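FW: tagging you since you asked about this chain on Friday. Here's the raw sequence from the shared folder, copied in full. Didn't touch anything.
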Amino acid sequence: MPIIQIGTNHYEEYLRDRLFFELAFLKQDGIIIEIDEFQKGDLTVFDCQLRLDKDGLDNLDFIFNEYIANALSDVIINNIEGELLEKILKSKYKQFSNLENREIIEMATDRLNFLISQEDQSIISKIQRKNRILLEILDYLEVRNEMSLEGFVQFRLKDYLSELEVSIDRAVDDFIVEKEYEEFIHLLKYFIDTQETKNELIHVVKFKNDHFKLLNEDGMVIENTYLDENLLSMVDCDLDYDDLLISALITAAPELIILHFKEPVSIIKPLKNIFADKISICLGCEYCNLNNLNELD
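HL: got it, structure written out here
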């Protein structure tokens, strides 16, 4: 009868649980696998042996190998991957605190699982990663029946480890950009809180062309260089109107701001971050439905 031995130095609990979990499904199909466990120095070895051939099945060897491969790939993805990410992070980037390391690892995991950038084709999803590892294990078991779990990961899963390293590198880049942005927002908020108020109330109106205008409490347009249509039309480049709006509001120094639009969120979120309690969103009024300046007359 086929026998496969799997050794591990650190993951015996995870491996034991997963092997017996998978075993329960095979028992339902009349396939019996016996698992013996013993110590070999620092190594915990699981001796897995197919004991019963079910009548009518001529691919039991493949089913047996797939059982082992499924259990091992699950342990690698769900239990070892996090430790691998942490090891890569700490070996390449030593400047971060434990809390920052946890944030970066979470960001790297999100990237791996397509929770951030689904356009990044160099990083595959969790299910795809597991399937690829499973196939690598099946190939290995075609020629060998003994395996060191940690050794297999280190020497046979080079591409997988490269994927993890890429996810860490990009998560670190994202983390640094995010922290720089937070610091920038903090400085802006400090400046806004300490500057002298120039306008008690400003209405921010958004037209269909996605341009903005600032109105004072009397409904009069507040002239502002950042939002000047004539100047903007003369500039031969792609402008970020969101940034221009933020600059215009900082220059106008309002005590209160009412936004007469609910989209896009990409501008509302930074406005709330910067101006905090000064910001409110109108639930609906004549300013919310303006198409152009002529309608103000």
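FW: The radius of gyration is 30 Å.
HL: agreed, and The chain has a mean pLDDT of 87.
FW: great, closing this out.
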